[in-house]
Design goal:
Length: 272
């Protein structure tokens, strides 16, 4: 199981979990080491499987020993580690996920109940606003989310990240945390697996330079050619040479038209 998948499973349980269920799971140690899980005291009760039928058994600390109480067997002494409770650190999750996504407008506390704003990711065609909702499985989860979103600034592209369930939400897309990101087990940082813009169906722009992009690149090229004394006297000849430089330095961009380049050459010469 991946690190994110285990973290998701634990978050989905909605509270403290017992460390003993994961005792032999090395991924749990990774989550603890990087702070995604923290120790949260001792469980109040566990399930007793030692008598006729499984039942909830209160955990007690008596005479310096931990144990649980079964009406059939009595006080069952166990190592403290058996009762260790762990809980997911959601504020830490909402700190590291936006870092990996390069988000703006992050909020470090829940908007409402358990709904968090991860923040806004700027993509080609606009801004995708991401939210985190631990579970999106039942009607209650959905109505809590709706209430939280109703207080938020309207945005065209919304992505709800959850650890469990992907109940449809009006005016938003949903994605499981494990489909959005993974955790590097060495550094503890998130790696993004899918672009939020793609997940919400935002149209992707072709890799064509925008006018503003051309401007910065062409101005830099013109300045470089002037500095090196490579500038040609004729405007057309200079534009042609400049376009050649552009193609050479930015083979991944669709080059501007020759008339656009000529315009930049003219501007750089004060329109003469
Ligand atoms: Zn029992």
């Amino acid at each position: 199981m991946s690190t994110v998948a285990l973290l998701s499973e634990i978050i989905a349980q909605g509270g403290k979990i017992s460390a003993r269920f994961y005792r032999d799971n090395p991924t749990l140690a990774t989550l603890l080491r990087h702070g995604y899980l923290s120790e949260a005291g001792v469980l109040k009760s566990v399930v007793c499987n030692d008598c006729e039928a499984p039942h909830a058994a209160p955990v007690l600390f008596e005479d310096g020993r931990y144990g649980y109480v079964c009406s059939d067997i009595g006080f069952v002494v166990q190592d403290r580690a058996v009762f260790q409770a762990l809980q997911p650190d959601l504020p830490l999750l909402i700190e590291r996920l936006p870092q990996a996504l390069d988000c703006k407008k992050t909020k470090g506390s829940p908007l409402h109940d358990q709904t968090w704003r991860i923040g806004a990711v700027v993509q080609d065609a606009g801004e995708v606003m991401l939210y985190f909702q631990p579970r999106l499985q039942g009607e209650e989860d959905a109505s809590n989310l709706t209430r939280a979103l109703s207080q938020e600034v309207r945005s065209r592209w919304r992505l709800i990240v959850t650890s469990l369930g992907t109940l449809p939400v009006a005016n938003a897309e949903t994605v499981r945390l494990s489909d959005l990101a993974e955790i590097d087990s060495n550094t503890g940082a998130f790696h993004i697996l899918a672009q939020p813009g793609d997940l919400v169906g935002m149209p992707r722009k072709n890799k064509r330079g925008r006018p503003s992009e051309y401007g910065a690149i062409l101005s830099a090229l013109i300045a470089a050619r002037k500095k090196s004394g490579a500038s040609l006297a004729g405007r057309n000849a200079e534009a042609k040479a400049l376009l050649g430089d552009f193609k050479q330095e930015h083979p991944d961009l669709t080059p501007p038209s020759i008339s656009t380049v000529r315009g930049y050459v003219s501007n750089s010469r004060g329109g003469q």
